[in-house]
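Budget justification note: compute hours in this period were largely spent on complex prediction jobs such as the one shown. Inputs:
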Amino acid sequence: MKSAVVQLPGLNRDRDMIAALTRISGQAPVTVWQTETEIPDVDLIVIPGGFSYGDYLRCGAIAARMPVMQAIREKAEKGVKVLGVCNGFQILVEAGMLPGALMRNSSLKFVCKQVKLEVVNAETDFTRAYAPGQIIRCPVAHHDGNYFVEAETLKAMNDRNQVVFRYAEGTNPNGSMLDIAGVVNEAGNVLGMMPHPENLIEAAHGGTDGRGIFASALDVIAA
Amino acid sequence: MTISNTIAITPDLIAAHGLKPDEYQRILDLIGREPSYTELGIFSAMWNEHCSYKSSKKWLRTLPTKGPRVVQGPGENAGVVDIDDGDVVVFKMESHNHPSYIEPYQGAATGVGGILRDVFTMGARPIAAMNALRFGAPDHAKTKHLVSGVVSGVGGYGNSFGVPTVGGEVEFDARYNGNILVNAFAAGLAKADGIFLSEAKGVGLPVVYLGAKTGRDGVGGATMASAEFDGQIEEKRPTVQVGDPFTEKCLLEACLELMATGAVIAIQDMGAAGLTCSAVEMGAKGDLGIELQLDRVPVREDRMTAYEMMLSESQERMLMVLEPSKEEIAKAIFVKWGLDFAIVGKTTDDLRFRVIHQGEEVANLPIKELGDEAPEYDRPWRASDKRAALPAEQVAEPADYNAALLSLVGSPNQSSRRWVYEQYDTLIQGNSLQLPGGDAGVVRIETHPTKALAFSSDVTPRYVEADPVEGGKQAVAECWRNITATGAEPLAATDNLNFGNPEKPEIMGQLVGAIQGIGEACRALDFPIVSGNVSLYNETNGVAILPTPTIAGVGLLPDWSAMARIGTARDGDVLIMIGVDGSHLGSSIYLRDLLGSTDGPAPVVDLAAERRHGDFVRAAIRNGQVTACHDLSSGGLALALAEMAMASQKGARLSLSDCRGLPHALLFGEDQARYVIAVPADLANFVRASAESAGVPFRTLGPVGGEALIIDDIVNVTVTALVNAHESWFPTFMA
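Corresponding output:
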């Protein structure tokens, strides 16, 4: 399966993401610059983490308005899988492609540590490699991961099983509402998550817990 | 409208520029006339202590800077060291002490930004950062505010730029109450044939300005950093620059793209003294003149004077000499990244530094004398008095060893730094193998299947105060030891020498002694100094900081699968101490933190033993005989064992029955050249025999296992109690 990684000024985990996708699919992703209006024919588009435009405005707000986002939106409407990690999640929220908002961490500090995630919904295109309710480890590294969504939308999201990951075992690092760490859109093909699965995919990282997300999305789940 | 350059030069104005009367006379002799206001500013920027090293140069020359792996020693933006396969590591450490005390967030942030720029100016992509931070006493009114600001500034810049922070130090001492230390280290990776230097080449070639626009921030910063603080410190806030990590990240990508095109002949970042220092260095090194047209400099404020433009320390800027045929390609790269690109001058053959503003020549100075022929002093110095010996018999034993150990692991200086390093991105780039909290940070080389680099930053200022020579040796030895404890071969180091006012003979004596000790240790350990920075005048109202020569080193692991960590011992493994029995309690943390005394000499560093013991430990790690390793430093054997127990979440049942000495000296003595290794029980005899034949002293301590650290009948503390004490101090302090 083919993949693409979006590059915008200030994103800085693009290299991590390219390395992870290459390692897991055996094929390097194509890169797409922010001004491009057409995206090559791929099965998965990833918006990696970082500080797009310095995050001097609301995180992801400027990036969400770049030309490439319109192209991503069109691909998503056609069913192409889109994964936004960390700043990528913030950008998808700012672009209106995912519900909710990501506020400043409740500690008001940047936090980088390993947390635990519960795979709440193991039936998405991104989580089939996991068992329902499975607890995995995953690193986080962010300043604004405190997820919030208003009650009515939350209820609809719960009804549709849109909450995919929750921080587990008391490891919520940012005060996120109901421990929400990752959500999917209604159609199920756009996932946003704050933790960084791309930094836990090989023995050198101290584990491979994050691999399942890419293996699911790239359809390379080991038997 | 013309902006005046005709301000009268008065003695007050000269003094305000930090120039001494004899230095001003030298200027008059040199140019044969009174300097213009802009020229005075340029001299002030080039001849201050920070840029010219005028007090330290004589002594810095004595340091060993060469070795088979050294590609580039001191004098460039950073040192360059060969790590095989055509790869090189580029690194340096630099202080940002004064700005960080005045404005902690921006001071620390721009310190990180400056050192990252030093590394990527040379063509290297930054792969690791460290920070050695020293603050005043925890109960001092400003300390919490400074810790909070500096830590978020370090994180704010490094996290956004995208470099993992893999190590560092955080210490507290009342001697830093009025003058904190922020020493930032960065290392980058490049190919040996892809290194860029600052030496300009070729006459009539375009000098190009890259990066962010020039503003009035930081005007006179380097001169400020070369003066003592007094009561009016708040007035100096406008001399602190403001950092923009987003622009720096774009500048990194643009520079690396540009370098790959062959367009760069010479490049220099604009750090201290901005445009002045970068232009003069490029010209002076290349034996060329430089002419600058200031009207072409991208500015973000109106009506800036030539003086302000020449002395601005606005961040995220570079100057380069461009291959003219590549101008369009180069420009396109900078437009893509949204950065300024302006041809602001040219190289000349007249060895003059000429600055033109609004049609007027505002400076015309001899470039060599400004740069590499700046004044140099042989300042009077006085060696520190030797301290009387302090035998362990004269130091009280603790009434309760458990309480003493818990108190030390939970003390301000020995407690966990988790509160700090969890605010730093330690994982970005996906190559971090060892994170802060161990002996050294380790980062693998992405492009190689097995290679990795180890990084550590060390100094024990209380030792340097007690004995500058031994303290200087110890800083190097501890850095070398920490790198060795991962199994890496220490390659080279960078020194960041933080001292008080060098015009005082006793302070100058500390500097001279420390450099002597550093030099001796670096020679004995084949650990050359390849880059560095000197920060003097770290005094407030006449009181100097503890002498703090920070040493940051780099080591190479050919195969990281044979790497040691501190917390990986398994149940049943045998703990063996390498080195002599603990005996030295002078200047120890046992004495300072439990008995409230700073008496006694520093421990003596036997460099031959250091090397022999380290080489033995490294070989044992690489041969797969060691399951965990930790060096012994502050707090001695007891602290090392407690840290290993906490990291592995495993206790141990140990005995000192083979050792000779008083229990508090055995447990808390800070004798040097020591490690604790964990070895599988079935290999213990073999490892002991190997040590014996290598002439390395050792003591078998006992097996790993259980839930408590038990040492004979004197220590019995659960690992949980240790962890609780260790982890609680920092969050409680900062709450």
